[in-house]
């Protein structure tokens, strides 16, 4: 019998993850157009404000656009093997429907990726992360319009071709399932009065699936050595009691997420979703050839975010709710919660890894995991974020157990290795980073960078390949 292996692979991709719209700033520089993130002043769950009269911290981010060399040097000091980021679609196609890309935007990412590679850090690039050109929303209705597939495919082919010698790891969309929970953020959807919102969201999801599959096909053609994956917001669900009705409610809740990885990994719509459509009077318009496109465009790996687990019940009326990433669930009395009410469940990560690997037998990549918290700068300038170290070390320990279970795990990118503008609340107060950025919720501060206690801790984790937590 072979010996059980609890070690991370030698080529394990340790790093951190960000999104362009949360860090770059410079929202009108370099020929960039307006994106949906630029008109979402209060986070992903809020309606957009095209007038932008409200303060929008995304506009300046943490000025990564001008400071990326300084920040990448800090990532290199921690020993990052990879850095997950995204390309701002509107830097490449400002309105979304142009025939020719913006060279100044393309050149920026050339310099950015070159800087990463000069430090031996592999770029892991999400093609679209919680943003799309505002022009595609105003002129076409966002992802509810099939025409947007054409614009996305053009954009994807441009960046896949441009950076084929620099980027080995791609993802098509960030947390693609968010279209059902924050439809403006996930799909640029603005509903008309009386519109069947569920039908619109699932139709938009279909267009996203086709666009993703076409990007996968393009990636395989342009650079067969590259890997391209999907990315889902994963939220494993437990039944609140052993009551079979609660167990089935948990299954149904999980399927709302798993349908997205099912379709992108297997290449077809699952039977349970077809039944859901019938029972909820949802009709998806498919073009001829769509089913073949889905079959041909299955992903190479599955990326996912994991912050918490959920609890489901068939009768939630009397039970206390818990906050969460994108949606709320029933509170789990066995778990602690973060300052923002997100329940902390390291064991749930091991469960999620096993469930996904059992289901697909494809490599997995934990591309978001972290703790949003209020950090205090002491008089001597230190930031003692032991709570973050505890959170991350407990989750990494469960990843190690999952590897021993036989899970094929490619890498781990902690969310927000440098403080950034929170996607869920559009504030700076909710910090994730190993690196502190001097900026507050009103946009005040020097933007200077400072190392937190967790900086050296994560450096040691990477140096020892996860042996020292």
Describe this structure in words.
One of its GO terms (cellular component) is cytosol. Belongs to the glycosyl hydrolase 1 family. One of its GO terms (molecular function) is beta-glucosidase activity. It comes from Metabacillus litoralis. It contains 14 helices and 16 strands. The chain is an alpha/beta fold and 469 residues long. It has a single domain, classed as Glycosidases (TIM Barrel). The strands form 5 sheets. Strands 1-2-3-4-5-7-13-14 form an 8-stranded parallel beta barrel, surrounded by 5 helices. A two-stranded parallel ribbon has the order 6-8. Strand 11 and strand 12 form a beta hairpin. Helix 2 (64-78) packs parallel to helix 4 (103-118), helix 6 (147-162) packs parallel to helix 8 and helix 8 (197-222) packs across helix 11. The two termini are 29 Å apart.
Features of the shown structure:
globular, single chain, two-stranded parallel ribbon, 16 strands, alpha/beta, TIM Barrel, eight-stranded parallel barrel, Glyco_hydro_1_AS, 469 residues, Glyco_hydro_1, 14 helices, 6-phospho-beta-glucosidase
Would you spell out the secondary-structure blueprint of this structure?
Blueprint: E1 13-17, H1 20-23, H2 64-78, E2 82-86, H3 89-92, H4 103-118, E3 122-128, H5 134-140, H6 147-162, E4 169-173, H7 183-187, H8 197-222, E5 227-234, E6 237-239, H9 244-266, H10 271-279, H11 290-296, E7 301-306, E8 310-312, E9 321-322, E10 329-330, E11 336-337, E12 343-344, H12 346-360, E13 364-368, H13 386-404, E14 409-415, E15 435-437, E16 449-451, H14 453-463
Parallel strand pairs: 1-2, 1-14, 2-3, 3-4, 4-5, 5-7, 6-8, 7-13, 13-14
Antiparallel strand pairs: 9-10, 11-12, 15-16
Helix pairs in contact: 2-4, 6-8, 8-11, 12-13
Active site: 368 (nucleophile)
GO cellular component, one term: cytosol
Protein name: 6-phospho-beta-glucosidase
């Amino acid at each position: 019998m072979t010996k059980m292996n609890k070690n991370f692979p030698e080529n394990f991709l340790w790093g951190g993850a960000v999104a362009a719209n949360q860090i770059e700033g410079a929202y009108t520089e370099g020929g960039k157009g307006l994106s949906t993130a630029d008109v979402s002043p209060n986070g992903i769950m809020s309606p957009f404000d095209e007038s932008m009269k409200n303060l929008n911290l995304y506009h300046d981010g943490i000025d990564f656009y001008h400071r990326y060399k300084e920040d990448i040097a800090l990532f290199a000091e921690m020993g990052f093997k990879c850095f997950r980021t995204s390309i701002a679609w509107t830097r490449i196609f400002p309105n979304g429907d142009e025939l020719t890309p913006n060279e100044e935007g393309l050149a920026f990412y050339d310099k950015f990726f070159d800087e990463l590679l000069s430090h031996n850090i592999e770029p892991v690039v999400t093609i679209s992360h919680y943003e799309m050109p505002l022009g595609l929303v105003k002129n076409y209705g966002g992802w509810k319009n099939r025409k947007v597939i054409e614009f996305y495919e053009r954009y994807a082919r441009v960046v896949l071709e441009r950076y084929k010698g620099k980027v080995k790891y791609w993802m098509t969309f960030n947390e693609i399932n968010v279209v059902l929970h924050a439809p403006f953020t996930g799909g640029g959807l603005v509903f008309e009065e009386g519109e069947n919102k569920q039908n619109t969201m699932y139709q938009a999801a279909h267009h996203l699936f086709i666009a993703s599959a076409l990007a996968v096909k393009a990636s395989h053609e342009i650079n067969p050595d590259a890997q391209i994956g999907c990315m889902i917001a994963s939220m494993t669900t437990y039944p609140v009691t052993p009551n079979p009705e609660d167990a089935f409610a948990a299954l149904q809740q999980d399927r709302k997420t798993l349908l997205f990885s099912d379709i992108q990994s297997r290449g077809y719509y699952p039977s349970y979703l077809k039944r859901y459509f019938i029972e909820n009077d949802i009709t998806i318009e498919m073009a001829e050839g769509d089913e073949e496109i889905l079959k041909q465009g299955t992903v190479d790996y599955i990326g996912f975010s994991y912050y918490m687990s959920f609890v489901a019940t068939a009768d939630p009326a009397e039970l206390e709710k818990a906050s969460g990433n994108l949606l709320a669930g029933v509170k789990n009395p066995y778990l602690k919660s973060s300052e923002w009410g997100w329940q902390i469940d390291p064991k749930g990560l091991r469960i999620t890894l096993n469930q996904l690997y059992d289901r697909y037998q494809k490599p997995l990549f934990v591309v978001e995991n972290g703790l949003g918290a209020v950090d205090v700068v002491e008089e001597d300038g230190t930031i003692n974020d032991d709570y973050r170290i505890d959170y991350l070390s407990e989750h990494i320990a469960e990843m190690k157990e999952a590897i021993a279970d036989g899970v094929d795990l490619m890498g781990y990118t902690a969310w927000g290795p440098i403080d950034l503008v929170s996607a869920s609340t559009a504030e700076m107060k909710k910090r994730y980073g190993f690196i502190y950025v001097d900026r507050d919720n009103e946009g005040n501060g020097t933007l200077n960078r400072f190392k937190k206690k967790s900086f050296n801790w994560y450096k040691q984790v990477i140096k020892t390949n996860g042996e020292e937590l």
